[in-house]
Automatic annotation (TrEMBL):
Species of the source: Azorhizobium caulinodans (strain ATCC 43989 / DSM 5975 / JCM 20966 / LMG 6465 / NBRC 14845 / NCIMB 13405 / ORS 571)
UniProt keyword Protein transport, yes or no: no
Binding site for a divalent metal cation: 256-257, 280
Keyword Metal-binding recorded: yes
Entry annotation: catalytic residues: 114, 185
Record protein name field: Malic enzyme
Stretches assigned to the Malic enzyme NAD-binding domain: 281-532
Cofactor(s) listed in the protein's UniProt record: Mg(2+); Mn(2+)
Family: Belongs to the malic enzymes family.
Residue ranges the record marks as coiled coil: none
């Protein structure tokens, strides 16, 4: 009897995403499983077989009709934070409708789920909180982290995005409120590169926070303690990494938005030991290199001849410096010659050799000249062709700075990478106006087009989301042993190569976001080719890499 019933159920649910035996739930419980729920799209047969009769309204709808309803709901929302809250709720109810919606119009939805709206969502995370998503690891789990990770219901976790919340965008230390970032970063693995969502796990590594006002906030959801001291943090991270290896052996650990010095130390410690990368260091470096390479296609300049000045010498500044220097060395410069073409400023002025507060990573780029805090004067002396802001200091690229760059260069490359919008070193309008339309400009967020003296200028968005989802997709399919800096250099060139002549003519430095999936699959294909060539991939090389990747893409349908 039971067998006959099961056979008839199987017949009825042929069209469901997972075969019946794989469905964890039926009845009401199934409607509360976001990765299996089809809501009003369950067919009559499915409703009968799965105990759903009477639990849904009569109509049987298509996925497209469900998306239409979502879009109409979004139209009634007052602002993007409300849309963000609604979309996260949708993901909690029906993952397929969520991704179908996002992937139908990535250009519209990236700024809602991610930068800049995610900044507001993080700042108010404790107030907005509705439902658990991802995992929280605290110091109180010390000695039991592997056991805790086993509470995650899925076993084939392929990516963990982990943040301490110690430096969320340019917002500083916001502790457990930073969970919005691992969630948003991983959503873009799927939305931009079709990495299956089932294999993604956001983790907030709750080590405490320096943020006293948050610790006093009644709605704060993290541990209300100051952060762990460095040695304790290292010990807890070591246990976490070991536990991840044990519980999810095929998992890549993506570090995101840790305090700058912690970020650099962890990458140095783990990059040769496990499958890992730091997006703020390596992903950001790659997207900056892509933008510079695209700018060179416009100006006709050579990357090895550029002089690059940074405002900000933290994880992003050091990461970009390292990748640019590596790229310059492939063009024949020695390491010393390459580094001499790079200079960095931080809170204390020029990073130069007499300073006693420099980290080992900063010392490599210490300028030989005398100390100075005068940024504009230094621009005139150093004569940069490329200016990159990764300082979190809004407005630091003032009129004097932009004018100094424009006097030195026919087409100054100016990147205001600090996030979110309120932290950008200058706006697109300022860059184009003060440079009189000469600047090749990009920012961490997408600024609107600017009209200056009758001409329309299209700012680029130099954000690591052009890179890390493609790195994720390449890693998902090729299962490399390690992620090397070369993977990020390949990703940078693959991205720049997709800025065709039409986009170049408009001064655009990055591919259009309308076609982000196509772009990232192309980038991933190049990365995977490199992984096979370099002996990093651990699967058999297919004859047609692109087709093989396309066959593994997540598609939001029932
Ligand atoms: N567009 C993108 O894709 C990405 C953008 N970013 C953005 O870059 C910014 C920095 O990130 P990250 O490097 O990881 O952060 P870090 O905290 O590691 O580094 C920040 C750096 O900026 C310096 N700084 C702070 N205030 C000033 C100031 N007033 N003048 C000059 N320098 C200053 C700091 O100096 P000190 O250490 O002395 O305080 C430090 O060197 C953030 O806003 C982040 O959102 C980061 C990654 C990707
Ligand atoms: C984009 C990003 O990773 C950051 O601002 O930290
Ligand atoms: Mg980041």
């Amino acid at each position: 009897m039971a067998d006959t019933k099961m056979a008839s159920q199987l017949k009825h649910v042929e069209s469901t995403k997972a075969p019946l035996h794989a469905l964890a739930s039926s009845g009401l419980a199934l409607l509360h499983e976001p990765n299996q729920n089809k809501g009003t799209a369950f067919s009559r047969d499915e409703r009968q077989a799965l105990g759903l009769e009477g639990l849904l309204p009569h109509a049987v709808e298509s996925l497209d009709r469900q998306v239409e309803r979502v879009l109409s709901h979004l139209d009634t929302k007052m602002d993007d934070l409300e849309r963000y809250i609604y979309l996260i709720g949708l993901e909690d109810r029906n993952e397929t409708v969520f991704y179908k919606t996002i992937m139908s119009d990535p250009k519209r939805f990236i700024p809602i789920l991610y930068d800049p709206t995610v900044a507001d969502a993080c700042l108010t995370f404790g107030n907005l909180y509705r439902r658990a998503r991802g995992m929280y690891i605290t110091r109180h789990m010390k000695g039991r982290i592997a056991e805790v990770l086993r509470n995650w219901p899925r076993k084939d976790v392929r990516f963990i995005c982990v943040s301490t919340g110690g430096r969320i965008l340019g917002l500083g230390d916001i502790g457990a409120n930073g969970m919005g970032i691992p969630i948003g970063k991983l959503q873009l693995y799927t939305a931009c590169a079709a990495v299956p969502p089932d294999c993604l796990l956001p983790v907030l590594f709750d080590i405490g926070t320096t943020n006293e006002s948050l610790r006093a906030d009644p709605f704060y959801l993290g541990t209300r303690e100051p952060p762990l001291a460095e040695a304790e943090l290292d010990e807890l991270t070591e246990e976490f990494i070991t536990a991840v290896q044990e519980v999810f052996p095929d998992c890549c650990v993506h570090f995101e938005d840790w305090k700058g010095t912690d970020a650099i130390r962890m990458l140095d410690r783990y990059r040769d030991r496990i499958l890992t990368y730091n997006d703020d260091i390596q992903g950001t470096a790659s997207v900056a290199l892509a933008g510079i390479a695209a700018a060179m296609n416009i100006t006709g300049g050579k990357l090895s001849e550029q002089r690059v000045l940074f405002l900000g010498a933290g994880s992003a500044g050091i990461g970009i410096s390292k990748l640019i220097a590596a790229e310059m060395q492939t063009k024949g410069l020695t390491a010393e010659e390459a580094r001499a073409r790079i200079a960095l400023f931080d809170v204390n002025g020029l990073v130069e050799a007499s300073r006693t507060d420099l980290t080992e990573a900063q010392k490599l780029y210490a300028h030989k000249g005398p100390p100075t805090k005068d940024f504009v004067k230094f621009i005139k002396e150093f004569k940069p062709t490329v200016l990159i802001g990764v300082s979190t200091k809004a407005g630091a690229f003032n009129q004097q700075v932009v004018e100094a760059m424009s006097q030195l260069n026919e087409r100054p490359v100016i990147f205001a990478l600090s996030n979110p919008t309120t932290k950008a070193e200058c706006t697109a309008e300022q860059a184009y106006t003060w440079s009189k339309g000469k600047a090749l400009f990009a920012a961490g967020v997408q600024f609107d087009d600017v009209e200056f003296e009758g001409k329309i200028y299209r700012p680029g968005q130099a954000n690591n989301f052009y890179i890390y989802p493609a790195i994720g997709l390449a890693t998902y399919v090729a299962r490399p042993k390690r992620l090397t800096d070369e993977c990020f250099i390949v990703a940078a060139h693959a991205t720049a190569d997709q800025v065709g002549p039409a986009l170049c003519a408009k001064g655009m430095l990055y591919p259009s976001q309308d076609q982000i999936l196509e772009t990232e699959v192309t980038t991933a294909t190049r990365i995977v080719e490199y992984m096979f060539d370099a002996g990093l991939a651990q699967v058999e090389r297919p004859r047609d890499i692109r087709a093989w990747i396309e066959g593994q893409l997540y598609k939001p349908h029932y």
